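Entry 14: structure prediction run for ParB N-terminal domain-containing protein. Input pasted below.
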Amino acid sequence: MTDQTTIPQITESVAFADLYVSPLNPRTVFSEDEIASLAENIKIAGLIHNLAGFRHDGTDGVGVVAGGRRYRALALLQDDPRFQNVQVQIAADEDTAKLWATSENAQRQDLHPADEIRDYGALEKTGLTAGQIAVAYGATEKKVYRRLAMAGLHTDVLDALKASEISMSQAKAFTISNDEKLTLEVLERVKANGTKGWGAMSDYQIKEGLKPDHVKGSDRRAVFVGVEDYKAAGGRVGGDLFEDETIFDDPAILQECFEAKLASTAAQIATDNGWTWGEGITDDYVYSDTINRMKMARVYKVEGVLTEDESDRYDELGELVDGDACDEAGRAEFLELQVKADGGFTAEQQAHAGVVIYVDHGGDVEVIEGLVRHEDQEAAIAAGVLKKSAHKETPKKSPISAKLQEDLDRIVIGARQNALLDDPTLALDLLAFQLTQSKGWQRIHAYDVSLPYLANVPECETGYTQDKRLTLPEPVESKGSKAEDFTAFRKRGHKKCMDMLVRTLIGQLSISHADLGEMIDEKTKKVTREHFTPTAENFFSRVGGPYMIALWNELLDLTDSHDAAKTFAGLKKGEKAAKLEKLFGDEATRKALGVTETQEARIAAWLPEGMV
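Run finished. Output tokens:
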């Protein structure tokens, strides 16, 4: 091959009409949009890099061996005299032409995405539009917009992207953050876990780490309240640029706005439709059991009566509607007759009743009409708009849900297990009693020895302390055979083996006979409150407001008319739960409330029903 260092650099001005693409040029696939964009760039900035060409034997003109994209872009600019003659660097021989053709293609390297983000962001700050940046770089506007959306990323995030310590997808997730400290903390976690494999943090996990308490704009509360009202209340708004979703950064403000708008909307709906009152419920669905728990009764629409002619017309139109053969006027008439047939609420019914509204999953308001409050039912019955129930009063429903009761039951069992740990002989005697005294169908269930060890932990562990001895040590590493494993196990010593047996047995404790359980509790002097303190999370927020009001008054010896009782009753549910948590867990709070020694002892010993 010719020594390239000795070849002179020859540049000629060649008429564009005399140029063609050389067969030596290896690039054959081009995007028409990219060529058009490059042409626009050349039109604005000129031809910055010359073409490279070679005069092939037996042909006229110059074959372009390097610069095929520029040649095709220039072809689109031939109505501009500036580009009808082009500067071309001419290869002295075919070896040189081949080298130029392959070298330029091999050396072509796109900017790293991190560098593109920085460059595009810097150009935008000078006042260039995305379209102008696209022209300058020969890129599409769509690509420029995607890069500009990441231009605000912290420099450490872009550095990590360039170093391949995080992926492009992971980098995009950081665009939701405006907290530098949190950004850097999460970035270190992402880098430590890598970009691939089971341990790598997903985009969702990164976003949750950056904004753990955020609420998406698709949340039903956000849809119902709206961005403007939320911002007017002082709420901050962020955004996920790549999910095209607004993010509400202040959940507490959103909740306040939600509850306020729910109440005002309920009142307005009641007023507009002639009801006496309107109430909003924060749940996303209202079940019939919810209405029952609120002790509300229902009145129903008075059925409408159609004349004989109207009834015939209604049937006639109904057949047309079902067959999709009814015109618009017929459908309107059918709906009028339908409304009349359905009937409606009378003015007297509405004078004793109201509406409950709630916001469903999609953020739409749902209305339940014709509800009579408990305190209004006697008057409604007297007025004849509500029938007196013919059913006997059902037993009072426990305010404690089944799910909460499961947690409380586990805490009781845990306290019993903790107490038994200090009396292993009793635990073993209990096992012997079960195994030797069970006969036929009369079985005694104290241990479930057929199951592996399972830790007895409530779903909400807040406020519950489990004895560390109930956590078994790791088993001996297997040596390959059961005989060897057993030999290694015995080397722990008989006392250690028996200790593990007792702990395992106690971990299985599940006494189903109440009298037997009471006897065990008495023997071990079990004190459940030593291992359980009621908190807002583990108990109070999981019961209703009336339950908490009654408990507050009972513990502090308050009547319903007492100012302190009224103040507590006027708090929101979450505030009531927090107040009770402090009453149980904060000595300063009890002192400020003037709690007496008797009340202090009552609080220290109190347990929910079913746990005593």
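Notes: Confidence is low (pLDDT under 50) at residues 435-444. Will compare against the previous run tomorrow.
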